[in-house]
Design brief:
Elements: E1 2-5, H1 11-19, E2 24-28, E3 33-38, H2 44-60, E4 67-70
Antiparallel strand pairs: 1-3, 1-4, 2-3
Length: 71
């Protein structure tokens, strides 16, 4: 899954939030985009759901940053 943020200054905060879980792999692709993957046996639908839930949680505390989830 790829996530793009509207504010480059917030990307590091999102990375730290996602990397708190040791089962999440985050790769920075650009100043505004990362790729997220999960270690383990989650299928693509479960990964999408889990990513969406985590992104909603992070977005609640960063309401001025728009995030876009892509596959």
């Amino acid at each position: 899954m790829r996530i793009e943020v509207s504010e480059p200054a917030q990307l590091h905060s999102l990375i730290r939030f996602l990397e708190f879980d040791q089962n999440v792999l985050v790769t920075r692709l650009s100043e505004t985009e990362i790729e997220v993957g999960f270690i383990g046996s989650l299928n693509i639908d479960a990964q999408r759901t889990e990513t969406q839930l985590r992104l909603r949680s992070w977005s609640a505390s960063h309401p001025h940053t728009i995030t876009t989830l892509r596959e």
